[in-house]
Write a sequence for this structure.
């Protein structure tokens, strides 16, 4: 086979199937940060890492952010606390007036 034909075929393969196109993608860490890996195997070596797929990017960050364990105190929670404090105060005052009589 002619050497020119071999080099031509190798060139066509490189253009059609570039080496970096196989597997470049975003890898999400457990802390919510993102980095680019060359393939899925490298990403999954990290404990708890999540592969986002081929040809994915870290801009914007596709990774799920860790949730906070501290619950928020909503408006309904504040209202409930005020009502319970009011009921408790009314019970205390009523009991106190009965004892004084």
């Amino acid at each position: 086979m002619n050497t020119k034909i071999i080099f031509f075929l190798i060139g066509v393969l490189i253009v059609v199937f570039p080496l970096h196109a196989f597997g470049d993608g975003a890898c999400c860490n457990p802390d919510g940060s993102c980095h680019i890996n060359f393939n899925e195997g490298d990403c999954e070596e990290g404990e708890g890492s999540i592969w986002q797929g081929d040809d994915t990017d870290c801009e914007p960050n596709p990774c799920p952010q860790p949730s906070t364990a501290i619950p928020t105190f909503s408006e309904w929670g504040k209202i409930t606390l005020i009502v319970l404090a009011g009921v408790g105060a009314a019970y205390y005052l009523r009991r106190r007036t009965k004892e004084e009589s």
Q: What stands out?
A: Residues 1-63 form one domain. DSSP finds three helices and three strands in the chain.
